[in-house]
Design brief:
Subunit structure: The methyltransferase is composed of M and S polypeptides.
CATH topology of the largest domain: Adenine-n6-DNA-methyltransferase TaqI, Chain A, domain 2
InterPro entries: Restrct_endonuc_typeI_TRD (IPR000055), Restrct_endonuc_typeI_TRD_sf (IPR044946), Type-I_RE_S_subunit (IPR051212)
Number of domains: 2
GO biological process, one term: DNA restriction-modification system
Keywords: DNA-binding, Restriction system
Family: Belongs to the type-I restriction system S methylase family.
Number of helices: 4
CATH class of the largest domain: Alpha Beta
Order of helices and strands: EEEHHHH
Strand content: 5-15%
Length: about 160
């Protein structure tokens, strides 16, 4: 028996389970609602039945924008779902029902650039300033949530 993983060892075509660049991954059990973004290099990774993979239609939305959007709303969405079980879970159908308001691609790019710039500032504080880093992370989450709340409500609340 070989120690190496090979797709040839499987009768089922596993391509639909492969994680591709720019896929968004959502945990449906265990770390319920944790979201990951497969940016960067292609790797030979595959999802299992506890992960939902989202492939964004890039002519309609920028994958990184959808990732930021989902990370902004997932906790509130999970609260609304009122998952009352010893082992709570969400399924693919639930995730497909999430409604997202998608602005033009140019506006999505502006949001991505803003959030990435702010994220970089936060990580630069990592060198010897953990308290400041935590403040910046909180500030980053605040502004990210404000941006997506604005998109959903078309109003800006100055709290």
């Amino acid at each position: 028996m070989s120690d190496k993983f090979s797709l040839k060892n499987y009768k089922t075509n596993l391509e639909k389970f492969r994680v591709n660049k720019n896929n968004i991954l959502i945990a449906t059990r265990g770390s319920l609602g944790k979201i990951g973004f497969a940016g960067g290099e292609e790797k030979n990774c595959f999802i299992n039945q506890r992960i939902v993979k989202i492939e964004v239609l890039e002519n309609l939305a920028i994958p990184e924008f959808i990732y930021f959007y989902l990370t902004s709303i997932i906790n509130d969405w999970l609260k609304i779902k009122e998952l009352k079980s010893a082992l709570p879970y969400i399924n693919t159908e639930d995730i497909l029902k999430i409604k997202l308001l998608i602005p033009p691609l140019s506006f999505q790019n502006k949001i991505i650039n803003y959030l990435n710039s702010f994220k970089k500032i936060c990580s630069d504080f990592n060198i010897g300033l953990p308290a400041e880093e935590n403040k910046r992370k909180t500030q980053y989450e605040h502004y990210k949530n404000k941006i997506f709340n604005y998109l959903e409500s078309n109003s800006y609340e100055n709290n």
